[in-house]
């Protein structure tokens, strides 16, 4: 299987759909609109980057789409299933069945070994962990000889690869990355991005990644640009240069608009 | 560094709450009892009253010092561990180990002075109550008037300050010596290995207890209630011995129960890994459980044996025997209450510092219920471990005393007292851990890891 394009492959063919998703923080006098009526649809087997100036709402978008935060309005579907339920337990169960995460700060559990970390989501879901499969995925990310190490004994890049393996082992419908290369050096960042891209191209995984780095975004199939809580553009088959140029424009535009509203 | 210590205190009052509470309570107890010495020095106090008051003041001064050192060092260890990243940062930007030490000791010293000052008013009230109690049992003449003077203030301030600073020095030595990378690795790999020096200290306390137990059973045999002089303190020494060895005890328990626990669902699995790899943190919690159980059971059962023996012989208690009984009930009651508060205090601090760990586990797919199950299961393991070793320590007092007083090694009384103490320890440990964990999970997981 080699998905170089965004052809739908599994299930409904749609990994993520947002319908009019909005998020408002604060009370009436102090309202901050972080997300303003965002709708989007991502086919499965695609690698999408989300970019925007700071304060554009890209982290909020990711958190709402991933069930880590509840949108104020609108609906989120993951692989055709509506994310519902208002309590934490229901959301957790929804997440662990369908969603994988890769965070900037890795968020591996310090007292668990590499292999234990990778199988933890399965254990928490009450399933018998498939250690052979987990070991195979860890070998794929280049950590086959580190299964018994603790996270503190690994470099940042290696820890992030453990986190990617953990996300992939559960074979979720979609993997969300929140600045997954934000805490890494250039070489480790490249390894991590290559792994994410490979999971899409070779294994049909769906990946959505928030980043501020044009080089990181260039690994994706397409880039969504966010400004002031709204999607303001898309770039298919991005290069680092084209993304950087677009971001510069976006930055100018937002600065102008903010200056205008401030007057 | 002292200026930095003051800023650090102002900035992070919450993080110091546990240590502050330990110092405040310690200072209150110390000053309340030390004021008995002031009262004894008043005009027209008869010699019997004087003797009673002096014994009260002197005995508690010593135990108070020991307890405050213990309580403050356990809370400080937790708060310093929580700040290991900040300390590593300070080291990285060029702070020498000596400067880090001064920062931690400076913070603690300021805290101790404030805690002792705040403790003055409650200590006066507690001292007044204590005098009334002694008056109502006729151990002190009812016309003796209460005094809170230089001895109470001096002892309270000096001992609180000395104990807190000593505890800070012990904690800071460890934190300051570590290199930046070691500090981070140590936080993750806290498997409870303890230094040979610490093992030696623990063993010395246990040997001391064993020696006193032997003296009680041989030299003091047939000496009546005088045997309390050696028997009473034995469980305290043994309790301290086990508390010092706590990380090693948890390691042993982990080796025994982690395997079976691991196969009992997600909560059992996580509890097993915590037992194996967060040994130091868990040890900080069992210390007060051990002390609470050891001192509470040891002293109260000993007094129960004594009361039975007195009743059997048909004798009336002398003033001195009454003093000892009051000492046992009031003083030990205070020490036990102190240990109970320390237990809650330590547990709250330990759980609050796991906010990030809980959040990370939730992000990996754990429901809040599963986290609470882990906390409950851990609480059970901690209670059982603490209670078993605390009970063992209490036997150092109970068995020799029973033998010396009645000729039987096993006392004919005390099962109810023991059960009551165990129940209190269990409820405190499990309920506090549960409530603190619920509190720690109020923040959304994604915010708590940031």
Task: Give a brief description.
The complex is a heterodimer of chains A (263) and B (450). With 263 residues, chain A is α/β, with parallel strands linked by helices.
The biggest beta sheet of chain A is recorded as:
6 strands, mixed
Amount of beta strand of chain A? 15-25%
Radius of gyration of chain B: 23 Å
Query: What's the CATH class of chain A, please?
Result: Alpha Beta
The residue-averaged pLDDT of chain A reads 88
Structure keywords:
heterodimer, A: alpha/beta, Rossmann fold, six-stranded mixed beta sheet, four-stranded antiparallel beta sheet, 37% helix, globular, B: mainly alpha, 17 helices
Write the SSE topology.
The complex is a heterodimer of chains A (263) and B (450).
Chain A: E1 14-25, E2 32-43, E3 47-51, H1 58-65, E4 73-78, E5 81-82, H2 88-98, E6 99-103, H3 114-124, H4 131-140, H5 156-169, E7 174-178, H6 186-201, E8 207-210, H7 214-217, E9 222-227, E10 230-236, H8 240-262
Helix pairs in contact in A: 3-5, 4-5, 5-6
Chain B: H1 2-11, H2 13-40, H3 47-82, H4 84-92, H5 97-136, H6 150-177, H7 180-188, H8 196-218, H9 228-244, H10 246-262, H11 265-277, H12 279-313, H13 319-352, H14 355-363, H15 368-406, H16 415-440, H17 445-448
Helix pairs in contact in B: 1-5, 2-3, 2-5, 2-6, 2-13, 3-6, 3-12, 3-13, 4-7, 5-6, 8-9, 8-15, 9-12, 9-15, 10-11, 10-12, 11-15, 12-13, 12-15, 12-16, 13-16, 15-16
